[in-house]
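Case study.
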Amino acid sequence: MTQAPTPPLPESPSLDAVLKPRSVAFIGASNRPATIGAELFRNLLGYAFQGPVYPVNPRERAVFGVRAWPDIGSVPDEVDLAVLAVPTQRVLAVAEACADKGVRGLVVITAGFKETGPEGAARELALRDLCRERGMRLVGPNCLGVVNTDPEIHLDATFAPTFPRGGSVAMASQSGALGVAMLDAAEALNIGVSSFVSIGNKADVSANDLLEWWADDPRTQVVLLYLESFGNPKKFARIARELARRKPIVAVKSGRSARGLLAASSHTGSLAGGDVAVQALVEQCGLIRVDSVEALFDQAAFLAHQPVPKGRRLAILTNSGGPGIMATDACEGAGLDVAELSDGLKAALQEHLPAAASVHNPVDMIASASAEQYAACAKVLLDSEEVDALLAIFVPPIITDSRDVAEAIARGAAGSGKPVVACFMGHHGVEEATGALEAAQIPSYAFPEAAVRVLARAADYGAWLQRPVGDVPTLAGCDVAAARAVILGALSRASDDTGEMLTDPEVSALLDALGVRRPATAEASSAGQAAELARSFGFPVVLKLQAEGVSHKTDLGGVKVDLRNESEVFAAWESLARAAEAHGVTMSGALVQAMVRGGVETILGVSRDPTVGSLLMFGLGGVHVELLQDVAFRIPPLTDVDAAALVRSVRGFPLLDGYRGATKADVGAVEDVALRLSALVSACPEVAELDLNPLIALPSGAVAVDCRVRVAQ
Amino acid sequence: MTQAPTPPLPESPSLDAVLKPRSVAFIGASNRPATIGAELFRNLLGYAFQGPVYPVNPRERAVFGVRAWPDIGSVPDEVDLAVLAVPTQRVLAVAEACADKGVRGLVVITAGFKETGPEGAARELALRDLCRERGMRLVGPNCLGVVNTDPEIHLDATFAPTFPRGGSVAMASQSGALGVAMLDAAEALNIGVSSFVSIGNKADVSANDLLEWWADDPRTQVVLLYLESFGNPKKFARIARELARRKPIVAVKSGRSARGLLAASSHTGSLAGGDVAVQALVEQCGLIRVDSVEALFDQAAFLAHQPVPKGRRLAILTNSGGPGIMATDACEGAGLDVAELSDGLKAALQEHLPAAASVHNPVDMIASASAEQYAACAKVLLDSEEVDALLAIFVPPIITDSRDVAEAIARGAAGSGKPVVACFMGHHGVEEATGALEAAQIPSYAFPEAAVRVLARAADYGAWLQRPVGDVPTLAGCDVAAARAVILGALSRASDDTGEMLTDPEVSALLDALGVRRPATAEASSAGQAAELARSFGFPVVLKLQAEGVSHKTDLGGVKVDLRNESEVFAAWESLARAAEAHGVTMSGALVQAMVRGGVETILGVSRDPTVGSLLMFGLGGVHVELLQDVAFRIPPLTDVDAAALVRSVRGFPLLDGYRGATKADVGAVEDVALRLSALVSACPEVAELDLNPLIALPSGAVAVDCRVRVAQ
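After joint prediction, the assembly is written out as follows.
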């Protein structure tokens, strides 16, 4: 048995061995019907892999007519990729044999690893270590397999029932079941796939690796992800942000409700729950996030064929009022504008339409609309500067032929360089239009809402593409090394996972190192000392109860403000002492602080999210944050553009910006503090929670009146 | 030519003549293919109408083989229903001939009426008047037709290409195009229809009439509506609220963005834009609102076969982790709870499952799950008190047969009395399950999100059904007649559509009549008089600029608060005069008002919505309303239950309710004022805008510090 020698594999730690193998061995290939061993082998052969496929099975002479080999070692030629569907207990030994054979890529279908508990996790770690030591890339374990539709490769190493057709959409799924659903949906919607990887337990190959590989894959123009977790969110953010500049990434990130594992004690922590962290990551990276597999493919059908809109102004062209109204409604919900048409443009449309038509947007050409009218009006609208995208709706009346209309829309859209989508409603008389729309690469949706949603998400992405990237600026008077020393000092005291609160002197040292302003503050252990400090700071002052274990002082009457003279300070001291007693805590003293007058209360905070790591929050002070949850989040490190956007993302922002004639607060100073916190947590992931609450934004500058910091490993 | 005599039609102004005719004439029937005259006639015959069909066409001897008549008058027998598809100009004359013939119902397909402009509107009015005078009910004009699937009637008088199958779902569409889409969707999803009416321009028969007819129609169990407007919203609210107690109504209300026609000058008016009015109406009436035709039928498929859930606790049963997570995520977004399972319940599940399965909710039986395991676990979950509904997800693996699983789920669900839905994912190997699920009346969705959304909306409806209806209480000291006199007095001054503002004395009289408390207030025309009034009220007081055309006084420094003595009053007067001058307005005087101290600022207001009429708004004062738009709306008349819900609907409600140890405000007093405003506007639709801003909620009672009222026809 002689075969042509396989050309050498390029030296690289890349995924080529997995996605561009020249030969494949399938260990666990089987003749028994309705088994993975049979289904996957039939896919390998049936999809016509361009190199040899070697079935490995010690009990068979041949699998579906192909000469079988008892083990990988006995395969007579070089093998690039080995696909394993063998019992869990045998995976490690087989992987070792593959390494001995010189295999460069493994796809392990077999389950029974990390997903089953500690024993399986240990088995998975051993498998990963083996692969790393022996220079093999590993997809899985516990996965559905991989696909590459490249005609020169033509690999379907999955047991899914669908042969994907070739195209420009790359797909990865963390769930095998959703992987099957994705391949199914792509087939049903005629979306061409470049490659597909079911990443399973992600022992080695993760979404990050795939994003890097697809970045350089000329066949891939759009990336679809179904993810349940980010292995390394910082790396994901970096890679995704870079790739999204060139190729759109659409993601279903699942597991939004999985949070709430950490009991959070700070304001920031309690607000950072749920999905905000992932949402922040997604927005900063320019990902298009959707919430179902259906929406994933609606979006893919658009991105694979249509340009990204340069703005949000949509023109709606229809032959029926109802669906036009539904599209208009959907625009409001999704964040698209129904373009206001100028008189000139309306007149230009009117030239092609009967008097009864409406040339306002939605342009309702009424039921008598002809294919020619579709073509002419589509062209008029798309040629106009007033329109960024077109939605053409067609409800088949008895007279007009759907296919003619589809071709007319394509004609009207040709060469505009602007995105066009169609909505041909109803099942009857529409099928014949599908071919014409497909030929013109115009995606068509069954209902206007889906079409609008797709365009809206594409417009969001377009806006992200146009946004300047920004810089992570160098900050004057920000000594991150000194700040880190404070953090590590406090951390050395921490005895368990809950970590340690910074003491008041440590907080002072930290804010000084970062260059964050705070009012004159000192601790007094007696009423007399407090009065003396107040005199030295200048009245009025604030007195804050110091007592072990009390963090939300306001709740128990532990903060006295606007003390204007010594006798008020003495009275306040007494009052604090009584409040402490009433709540059964021991007053150790009080903080005396120069009172900041005027300005706007804000809060800047940091928390740690199990999915994405450190997370920065901004909000306006008091009820805005706690009750109304009017807050915004970003993932550090922040650029100057991010900081500006963060502060402007809350609904209450006008209160900082001279609302109703009030003095404007120094928004730049708030952004500056946000950047300083970003610098801190980028260098010190040990900051588990931090609240500047309130951070008072003054007409000039911003002052941190209170600061709580918890550090933990 | 002799025919059996038609039995007499019952005396009634009901829709029976349209929906239960014993004979039908089709005026405009045609042999020419691809015309409405041909398509509609073929539907009448092809669907096998149970009585005779008389084609009327002066140019044909027969239409598709049926003896034709030159005009309605020459039809030899009684005709209950006439369907008209004749040129617009001939509709009126033909309708008159129908009346002469004794026809009791008309369905006018012909377009060219109100939708085309004033001339068409006049034509429509004439048609409606004729029908009313001559005792004919009229569907349309400008509609698609009507369907009744009752085997004793079997009427398809539409030109849609679908014959609907019989069932319990009634449907009405204001848009013909959406009507076609609805019939299509019902067919595609195998949803049985009881009757369908395309109401077109609604010259006579409206959704309200249909709701009343369906209320008494034993074949109808679920109602689906596609609406663009409410003809008579008050009537709609009353009828829908009543029907929804017995049969669920699912509605797509479109035209959400169509508002903004009225330039609003009050706070309430400016906040009442967009969709809030319709949303309030929908919530109060127990309607299930969805935002697409797709979602309409997803919901219908559920309601037609499954009971309404009694609570929000969902159990998810799956053989694959990914879709389970997606369902969990969707629950969070849609407002369902993923039921927390007790240890006992988990142990009961574990008895049927392998160790690797997860008995937490979502219950992941892993890929090896057998049909028997589905049946057993479904039963355990549904029998438990901890679960209100079940979602069974199945991803076909190679081994387990979809149909077996479908049957097993049906077995496990039998007799539970709780709702069960299925999600069989992927296109392959799932078709065979469809029949089994349909036989068991378990709706199945292609993706978990749709299933969860449907259950969530059904649970909302269930909660509405359980909510007490409440009463519109009688209010002590509320003299609505006196209030109405004030309103009409002011209205008599109004010269144009923008209406008239109430003067300060009128406002006082109005609030007194309603029994709404306000602080001592009087107008001063000089600083001296202001000081004198202040002395008589007691300090501190508030001074408010009075000047023509100034309504938002705060914006231009026209309000001075906390004036503690006479000299402060004089200084404030000067300051108001300067402010007026600076803004180029003439100060006519100032209001002196006893200052209300403490309490929580709220706002209660009324505005008029073009869709639903009067609209009541509640919010917390200041930035809560204007900037954060934390407001809630209800349609009057309010019951006590509505008033309580209104006040509790804003996010900031805890601020009224003793937030963080603050004194509780008198929430009951705020509800009481809301009920008084409701009584006012129920009697006086002439109140175009009204703001109590602020209405201060005190520890005891509530005081309206400022009140602006605009009246208009």
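Observations recorded in class. The first strand of chain B starts at residue 24 and ends at 27. Chain B touches chain A through 79 residues (CB under 8 Å). We will return to this complex in the next lecture.
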